[in-house]
């Protein structure tokens, strides 16, 4: 055990030395589809979708795509691992050019995996579906975690009621709901292979043919948190972290092309619509925690504030109880704290340089946050953080924040029934995914749905008007 620990420490030290040598670093627009290559150029936007594939790449931050496709978006290629960072996403680039990209797609509160995966599938925010990640429960006076349960209808439930066959490839929030559930594990390549097997079996009559398939992949999330996962190693600067994320996206792009090629080989691409999106982005942070400064602000108002971890109870003498999903603070005021005091704290905290923003309970309600999210929500300005300990070496990354790096997610769609060469700049919530899938399949929306059909992306004429008034910038 001591030998293994020493070896691991030596590897980490080696990576630190090597990376130290790298330097620091209109709402709808109609365009022309790309003609480069054959990938994604055969599908007709006028063909109704017989099949829909919904892909969720966990932690697909929107600007990852730009880093990988725009010259000059990455640091200069010198030093360690600079030979060179692979750029270019041929499969995704053609998919976007021949489909619709939503450049201001956004996630909700809290921007954590279980809650936001559920939001996309149900077309509703946590106030409706009930999954809130980690939280403080005033009734039990303890911090707890939602896990995977939620109480809402999903697009898979709606499809099954309509008589369609549904399948989930490791979209774990649909375990027990989809007709077919497979969990191959591993990277996105393995999940693509399992998806094509499902279609091959359906076409051969060996199994039911799925008409709605949900695929989940967590490659970007595993790499983004900056631990050791799926073969990636920790980065020690933000610049090398960015290069790592681009390399992961380039690899996944190849697998995405394999999926499209497979659909064409099976002869079903012409009738398939594909939606690719995410649940949240990722925000790097480092250095000393700013949690003591937040506690100090409450102390100036004569309030004792404490942070409780999952499973722990809050002390009786606390005036303010805080919980966290990783970066931000969910603040609960005990009875007796006046509205005037809360307003004063909102103003004083918002003025601090380490605070990115503060939301009140009314603002949280307007954004669809569950009551268990608290009376106030505080997020940090990167690279500040509100974790319980200091980061003394390297960097970490998480996504429980309202910073645009975690809120603004990638979203694009293409194939049957989808317009070509369109870029949508209007703010687009991920809860619009489920209603749009419903429209593509010609079925009723999930019973809990609060989103709208993204008519601006569909070749079919709009049946009802609808707009999203919320903007990330409004915060």
Question: How is the secondary structure organized here?
Answer:
Layout: H1 2-19, E1 28-30, E2 51-57, H2 62-69, H3 90-97, E3 100-102, E4 105-106, H4 113-122, H5 126-129, E5 134-137, E6 142-145, H6 155-161, E7 166-169, E8 180-182, H7 188-203, E9 212-217, H8 219-224, H9 238-266, E10 272-277, E11 283-287, H10 291-300, E12 305-307, E13 320-323, E14 329-333, H11 339-350, E15 355-360, H12 361-366, E16 376-380, E17 391-398, H13 404-407, E18 412-415, E19 422-424, E20 428-429, H14 433-441
Helix pairs in contact: 2-9, 7-9
In short:
The protein contains 14 helices and 20 strands.
Structure report:
This protein is α/β, with parallel strands linked by helices and 475 residues long. The chain folds into two domains: 19-284 and 405-474, Alkaline Phosphatase, subunit A (3-Layer(aba) Sandwich), CATH 3.40.720; 286-392, 2-Layer Sandwich (Gyrase A, domain 2). 31% of the residues lie in helices and 18% in strands. α2 crosses α9.
Which CATH architecture of the largest domain would you pick?
3-Layer(aba) Sandwich
Round the Cα radius of gyration to an integer and report it.
23 Å
Q: How many structural units, i.e. domains?
A: 2
Estimate the helix proportion, in percent. 25-40%
Count of helical stretches: 14
Find the CATH superfamily of the largest domain.
Alkaline Phosphatase, subunit A
Q: Average pLDDT, to the nearest integer?
A: 87
Class of the largest domain in CATH? Answer: Alpha Beta
Q: What general outline do the C-alpha atoms trace? A: globular
Number of strands: 20
What summary fits the major beta sheet? 9 strands, mixed
Q: How much of the residues is beta strand, in percent?
A: 15-25%
